[in-house]
Every structure is written in structure tokens, then in C-alpha cells.
Amino acid sequence: MKTSLITFSLAAVLACTGYCQTPANKSSEVTPEMAAVMANDRAYEEAYAKADVQAIAGFFTDDAEYTSEDGRNFSGRAAIEACLKDAFRTNKGAKITITADSVKPLAPEVVVEKGSTTVVSADGDEVEALYTAVYVKKDGKWKISQLVETPMPEATPTEHLSELSWLIGTWEEADKDAGVTVHSTYQWSRGSSFITRNVTVKRGNDPVLEGWQIIGWDPTEERIRSWTFDDQGGFSGGLWTREGQRWLVRETGSAPDGSRTSADQTITKAGDDRFFWESGNRTLDGDPQPGIGRIEIHRVKGE
Length: 303
Hints:
Layout: H1 2-15, H2 32-49, H3 53-57, E1 60-67, E2 73-75, H4 77-90, E3 95-107, E4 110-120, E5 126-138, E6 141-151, H5 157-161, E7 169-175, E8 180-188, E9 194-203, E10 206-218, E11 223-230, E12 235-243, E13 246-254, E14 260-271, E15 274-284, E16 287-288, E17 292-299
Helix pairs in contact: 1-4
């Protein structure tokens, strides 16, 4: 997979010439240089669909230098073509998404481009890389003279949890008929690798239940996971799935008496200071239990 990643990431750089405008230049006039690399993009797509190694290698100068994201160096178009042949033999059907972050002229006939590539193989494996490509104009055509790939930095746990950062703060829900209030405080852990939640349930002014929740990124499952505990000895674990501004948390756990529990909790963001919570598909030792309808929860201002 590594060899094919190198080559198909390299090929992605060729394809990205069609996206050479930076976000800041989207409204700018298309220059002749941009138009030329867009034409290169169309030609590359045709060559890629046909696995035409010679056509792809033709996008490089004879003395081109390529450094792969794992640090290997290929000098000259012949070496790059050999690399391409190996990759097409082992990884046919890969697809490429290219994001060009910037394109800057260095001289009248020299352009440098920086961006990232996402390579999805036929079996669904996905790998990302960063690249810097230098293009020169040779005999009226733009060709790559130097290409350097670097690994995409791994996202930190904080970055993975950023979609839930809006929860940070204190929230409250109240059941006036029952005289019960639920007070929840979400905050970043030290180092910001987890979000912690403290929950206090009161009837009037008397605490009747306290709980704690830890929300983190599971690098094995590659998704958000949570662990919840209460002061009576119950606990559960949950896996989070996001759908727009709604999060589904599938929880399984144990009650204090050892009974097995499960439930689907749904959190729906309704604004910066309001969200809804509901719970369905609840079971106790496999027996269905009543669900809990939608509850509106508000941020406590000034806390």
C-alpha cells in the first residue's frame, strides 16, 4: 500500500493542476499559466483512467526530482516512470482528491504549488499527504521539475473533539412538575485531549444523583467514544456518530445491581445556547424499556 500511495499521491499532484487557484484567488482572472495547467489536468485524467504510465511520466521534465512522503528519492523521468509502473500493477482503481492551497509564480516560467492529496484505493483504504511541486515551462509546455511529498500530520485528539467544543460550559434542564433539575458542566481536561462532564441531579435543593462523563477520541475505532459513571455504581460506554448538528450515542453498560443496559441517546444542537436530548431503544437485560422524549437544555449564562 505504501508504494502505491507514493505514486498515486504523486499522480494526484498532476491532477491538481486543474485546481491551481488558491481560495484567496477564486475571483481572480484566470492567467495563461492557470489555463495551461488546467489543460494538463484534463490530459492527466485521461491518462490515469487508461493507466497510461508513459503519458503520466510525460508531465515531468527529463531531469525531474521526486521525493516521496516516506523519504525515497527518484531522479529523472525514467525512475519516476518505473515507480508509476510498480504502483499501477499493485493498486489499480484508486481515486484521488486534490486540494491545492496555493499557487505562486517564482519567475516568468516557474510556478510553485502547495496542497494536499487524498488517495482512496479500490479496497477503500484512504491515505493523505502534503506536497510541494515546482513547474517549469519547457518548449511551451508546463512540466514538473521537482515534487516533494510529506506525510499528513496526524490530527490531535483535541482536533477530533472540536466538533463538540460548543458544549464547553454549564447547562441546565428542569422538570418543574417533578421539582427536579439537572446541572451539567462540560470542560476540557488538562492538555485538552478529553472533554469531561460533571452532572448533578437535584430535587429541590437536595442532590439525589451525581455522575461523571469522559468524552474522547478512540484512535482504534477512529470515532468519538464516551464513558459515563454515576455515584450509585452504574456505568456505560458509548460510541458517537455525527449527522450534521445531531449526534447519536449508542450506549451499553451495567446498572448498580449488575443488570445490563443499553440505549440510544440523541443530542441535537439548536443554537449556541440550546440543545435537545432524547433517549430511545432502551433495554434492561434485553427487555424493552420506555423511552425518554425530547428534553430542551439551556446554557447557564455567566458560568
